[in-house]
Design brief:
Elements: H1 6-21, H2 28-54, H3 61-78, H4 83-102, H5 110-130, H6 133-136, E1 142-143, H7 152-173, H8 177-187, H9 189-194, H10 199-225, E2 227-228, H11 230-233, H12 236-249, H13 255-271, H14 279-294, H15 298-314
Length: 315
């Protein structure tokens, strides 16, 4: 594992401390916004692990999240399985589903890979409506799912703890040889193959890790909101929000997707009183596009530059 600098651990510790103290300084309404920001951060990290590192752009990520959501919802609601069993099983099912369905897609590149993953998302949307609607709830979805916690403060601590655990673990993994190889895969796949490393195994490892995070986040999300609907999960706006969060924050950084997720979630809530409908997605999309045009490496890179400039000035 690469040397972990003390300043990085201090930064993670400060971030955790600020988040732990947050309920003391903001209202319950703001805490609820943070809850959804935490879940979006988890989904953005999941997408970043695969697409931000390897360069294989996935347009079907809601499919992976949906497997985790529907798996735990069906097991807990329809079959009465305790949540402590349904969530781990949902994560396992997500990982198995990703291997069985997406492994053929890993052998293609570029726009073809993106189109194949997008097709799987649309296929999932159609299937959950017509295949065993007695289990999936059809077009209406599933309601009355057992919730893990009640109240804004408890929900915040649950989502924040999960997000921090996922983010810090992913950050540590990306500092290992595996993380270095995945980054190299995104930049020089042919050279990596020439060095004797199996790019197929590396891509599979990235996809499995991405599916694990997506399934875990999706399962906990289902047990937070207590209700799911196919149109909400397999929606192009949901996919768009995940990808934009990564690009705005800074892809390939783990920390960047968190920044992007928080920025977008609060921006959407700020626009809600003025544009209560889907029109606010157009506005935030335009803002996101402008930010990405002038800062293509993301907000995280901008903050790094400001920090370096500040250190240089202080010295």
């Amino acid at each position: 594992m690469k040397l972990i600098e003390k300043k990085h651990l201090v930064a993670w510790g400060a971030f955790l401390l600020i988040m732990l103290l947050m309920p003391n300084f903001v209202s319950n309404g703001t805490l609820r916004i943070f809850i959804f920001a935490n879940f979006l951060a988890i989904f953005a990290i999941s997408w970043d692990v695969l697409s931000g590192r390897t360069g294989y752009i996935s347009f079907g990520h809601p499919f992976l999240i949906g497997i985790g959501v529907y798996a735990t919802a069906i097991m807990s609601k329809r079959f009465g399985m305790p949540v402590e069993y349904s969530i781990p099983l949902a994560v396992l099912i997500t990982m198995l589903g990703s291997v069985l369905i997406f492994l053929p897609a890993l052998r293609i590149k570029g726009s073809y890979f993106a189109l194949v993953t997008l097709a799987f998302m649309e296929l999932a949307y159609q299937l959950v409506q017509v295949v065993r609607p007695d289990l999936t709830g059809g077009t209406r979805g599933i309601f009355g799912i057992k919730t893990l916690t009640r109240g804004a403060e408890n929900g915040f601590y649950m989502s924040m703890s999960l997000m921090f655990a996922v983010a810090f673990s992913a950050w540590l993994i990306m500092r290992t040889q595996l993380g270095t190889a995945l980054s190299a895969l995104g930049m020089q796949e042919e050279s990596l193959e020439g060095s004797g490393k199996s790019t197929t195994k590396l891509k599979l490892a990235a996809f499995m890790l991405s599916a694990f995070i997506a399934g875990l986040g999706g399962a906990f999300y289902a047990h937070y909101v207590g209700a799911i609907a196919p149109r909400t999960l397999f929606d192009i706006n949901f996919l768009f929000t995940i990808i934009v969060a990564v690009l705005l924050g800074g892809s390939g950084t783990i920390i960047g997707p968190i920044i992007g997720a928080f920025f977008l979630t609060f921006l959407l809530e700020f626009l809600r009183p003025y544009l209560p409908g889907a029109g606010r997605y157009f506005i935030y999309g335009a803002i996101a596009l402008l930010l990405y045009m002038y800062q293509p490496k993301g907000i995280y890179n901008l903050l790094e530059k400001l920090y370096q400039r500040w250190r240089g000035g202080a010295a």
